[in-house]
Structure formats: C-alpha cells, structure tokens
Write a structure and sequence with these properties.
binds zinc ion; Rossmann fold; alpha/beta; seven-stranded mixed β-sheet
Length: about 250
C-alpha cells in the first residue's frame, strides 16, 4: 500500500495524547528522558516530577493549597525554577528569591548563615534540591526555621537513594569523580535517606511528605507523578516526595 501524506497525518492525529503537564498544559504521547529517568521531563516547561508533585499538591490538598500557603503570603524561594516562579510570584504578597551562586536572585545568601534576614520574616520558604549542596545542611534547616514566622511552612525536596535508611555523607570525599560516584552528582555533598523527615522534625517542624500515593492512578499517569519505568541507576530517586514542613516550635 502506498502511504500517502494524508494517511500519515490521520495516523498521527489518531494517536491519543497520553500525558499532560499540570503546570504548563503541554500534552503529548510522553515526556522527555534524561540520564536518570525515561519520560519524566516536560518538553515545554522542563518540569520534573518534583515540580509537578508540588503544584498538584497546591491544587488538590486543602491544608497545602495555594490559598493556605502561597496566596498573599511572604515567600522566600531558594534556587528558584522559572516555571515555579511563574506560577506563584503573582499570587504572593511578597516574593523574594535567593541563591548562593546565581546573580539573578534578590539575595545572595548562604542558606546555613543568613544574618541579612531577620527572625520570622517569611510565611513560606521553598528549596527544591538545594540541601544536598549545602555543607552544613542541618544548620540550614535551623536558619530556615529561624526566618519562618510562627506556623510558617518550609517546602523541601531532596535526592533520596531508594531504600537507603540513613543519609550518607562523608566530608573526606572531595573529588568531583568521587562525589559523583558516592552521591550521584559532582556538586552533591551527600545523598539523603529515609531519615530525612525525622531530621527535619528534630529542628522543630511537623513534616507531611506528599508523593504519588496521595493522588488517583489516573492523575498520576496523566501528569507523570511517578517514573513510568523505574531507573536502574543505583543512586536514583525513583520515589520522589515533596516535604511540607510546618514550623511547630
Ligand atoms: Zn510543562
């Protein structure tokens, strides 16, 4: 059979669009792959599972909704991703960006030492995949606690090795090659384990970890809130969580 252009067009049109980005609205057959996972990154806005989990929690979980933690709140966002900024900036009362290296942020700060920020200045602090870069991340958690107002909320994501019980760090591992080998990336100083929630709680927070199990299977598959295929990389974070950490003391 001679395949005509029209036939090809009709075939492509009849293929169902299986996935949709819940942040930018892109639809298609599958997301893009990276060196860690197949088909998990939005080709339009570059969102990954952690960003889409965060936004869908704001859209669907009442106590973590836009109205409760973003709208008309004072926000501090570390290492801000443009796609998240574009969604939350306009809703907030005040939106401040911060980074240790980048020049395009409002504040240049070391997350573990922020004397330029007075106590209890922000209701919401966001830091996605930042703590693995900070030499003293426990001090950073204490600093975030200090700058949060009473009952404020910090939202973290961290790379966590699957089924690793205890966070692994070793300050004697300094070469870029060894850090990649042990922690998964040349600028990572540790890889977190299942004890992350407990460590954050020890700093005066109550932690709610949101993952794909908080949403229906249809929603998980449509927005790819879990890897379509598990990564076999020994340091991969297959089981992503977004940690909503409420200041309790
Ligand atoms: Zn997108």
């Amino acid at each position: 059979m001679k395949i005509t252009k029209n036939f090809c067009q009709s075939v492509s049109l009849s293929i169902p669009k299986k996935v949709q980005c819940n942040i930018c609205g892109w639809e298609g057959r599958h997301f893009l792959s990276d060196s860690w996972h197949n088909h998990t990154n939005c080709p339009k806005c570059r969102s990954g599972i952690r960003q889409r989990l965060f936004i869908i929690a704001l859209q669907n979980i009442e106590e973590l909704s836009f109205g409760k933690i973003i709208t008309d709140r004072k926000l501090l966002h570390f290492a801000p991703e443009e796609i998240i900024t574009s969604v939350i900036r306009e809703k907030s009362a005040q939106y401040v960006t911060a980074d240790y290296f980048r020049q395009d942020c409002d504040l240049k700060v070391d997350m573990s030492y922020m004397p330029q920020i007075e106590n209890e200045q922000f209701y919401t602090v966001i830091a996605f995949d930042v703590l693995e870069h900070v030499p003293d991340y426990q001090k950073a958690l204490e600093e975030v606690h200090r700058v949060l107002c009473s009952k404020g909320i910090a939202i973290f994501t961290v790379p966590q090795k699957d089924n690793l019980e205890k966070t692994y760090e070793d300050s004697s591992i300094v070469s870029l090659e060894d850090r990649t080998k042990h922690f998964g990336q040349c600028d990572h100083l540790r890889i977190f384990g299942d004890d992350f929630s407990r460590i954050v709680e020890s700093k005066g927070f109550s932690v709610t970890a949101v993952n794909e199990s908080d949403f229906s299977e249809d929603i998980v598959n449509k927005h790819v809130l879990f890897p379509p295929t598990l990564s076999r990389h020994p340091l991969a974070t297959n089981y992503r969580k977004v940690f909503f950490c409420r200041k309790t003391s």
